[in-house]
Amino acid sequence: MKKRINLFSKIDSSSKNDETIHKINLAGIGIDILLLVIFISMFFLNLYFNLTVIALTEQKKTIEEQIAKNASQTDMNYIANKEAQLKSFSSNDAQFIVYYDSIKKLLNDRSLPPLSEFKVDNKKKVSFSFDVTNVQDLHKLLSYIESSEFLTHFLDLKLGTASFDTESKSSNTLLQFSGTFKDVYPAF
């Protein structure tokens, strides 16, 4: 007997295999979709982080520029403050050394007794004293102080006190003068 093979008919044994293949195909499609979602989300996360980094970099540059600007502004404020302090100091400065050198030069040129005390304030009010040990020096000093050459340096000058030590063998005399200097040079 001859057996014939029917090629148009389905074999039932292969349907189990087809079902398994179909499940594997569905699982593969599911994995593909899951991987696609993961890759797309990773792309958008990467894009978001890159944009965030760019924004933060721009913000950092802006802050650094502001810090540099503020640093230069702080330096300018510091310089302006120091200039104001210098002007304030100059306006309140007594210019002691100028007036002291002026009167000392006047006295040294004539070999007169040295100053024993000297004070001057910022309004050019002066007080100074001499400690004279002998009568010749006293006469010389008083003659020079009363001269117009000495008095031209002062707006006013007067003898404050004169004390004489008559008990000791050396006749010490203390002369204290007070007055106001003329401007040696204008203030700042």
Share of helical residues: 55-70%
Query: Biggest sheet, open or closed, and with what strands and sense?
Result: 4 strands, antiparallel
The total beta strand count reads: 4
Radius of gyration: 53 Å
Dominant shape? rod-shaped
**What is the CA-CA span between the terminal residues?**
139 Å
Count of helical stretches: 4
Class computed from helices, strands and strand pairing: alpha+beta
Q: What strand line-up does the widest sheet have?
A: 1-2-4-3
| Average pLDDT over all residues | 82
How would you describe what is shown here?
A four-stranded antiparallel sheet has the order 1-2-4-3. It starts with 12 loop residues before the first helix and ends in a 7-residue tail after the last strand. The protein has helices at about 15-90, 95-110, 135-145, 150, and strands at about 115-120, 125-130, 155-165, 175-180. The model has no long low-confidence stretch (mean pLDDT about 80). Strand 1 (about 115-120) and strand 2 (about 125-130) form a beta hairpin. The longest helix is centred in the N-terminal third of the chain and has 80 residues, at about 15-90. It has four helices and four strands; from the N terminus they run ααββααββ. By secondary structure, it is of the alpha+beta class. It is rod-shaped.
